[in-house]
Amino acid sequence: MHNIHLDTQAKPDLSNDTDQKKTCENGQPDLSGGVPTEMWRALQIAHPAIEAKAEKTGLEAWDDVSSIEENVFTPTHYAPDGGIECIDVMVQQYGLQRVKDWAEITSFKYQWRNGNKIGNSSTQDKMKSIWYTRFSIGDDPRK
């Protein structure tokens, strides 16, 4: 078979290794391949993708309450480049009543998962639930 990945080094076969596997300070396997610690750290600094960053959870995922409010009331990912918001297109496509019904169900979803989604605080989920509840009863929170 032709090896098209000539620039990729093959990983050493450690299946017959009789030595105990080395671990890092955090208990994870040492994947440095014998590279001295200072060199490995320099590589990690130069190429941050080598080590995954810890995922933020809860309130520390947001700088402050204003960031949460911005994400609830004016999420840029639903209106790219300041254009029409997704929910407005949904109303055009499916009609206001169907979107209000969907908003009521979406509100329930945020209550159900309250604070359990990584990256979303309990406060944000509550605020989103309130937003969708308001929309579902005809009180558009954007107005």
Describe the overall structure.
It contains five helices and no strands. Helix content is 42%, strand content 0%. With 143 residues, it is mainly α. The longest helix is centred in the last third of the chain and has 17 residues, at 96-112. The N and C termini lie far apart (64 Å). The model has no long low-confidence stretch (mean pLDDT 74). The protein has a domain at 58-136.
- Count of β-strands: 0
Determine the structural class based on helices, strands and strand pairing.
Answer: mainly alpha
Shape: elongated
Oligomeric grouping of the chains: single chain
Low-pLDDT stretches are: none
Compute the separation of the termini in Å.
64 Å
Strand content: under 5%
Percentage of residues in helical conformation: 40-55%
Question: What value does the Rg take, in angstroms?
Answer: 24 Å
Number of helices: 5
Biggest sheet features: none
Order of helices and strands: HHHHH
Q: On the 0-100 scale, what is the average pLDDT?
A: 74
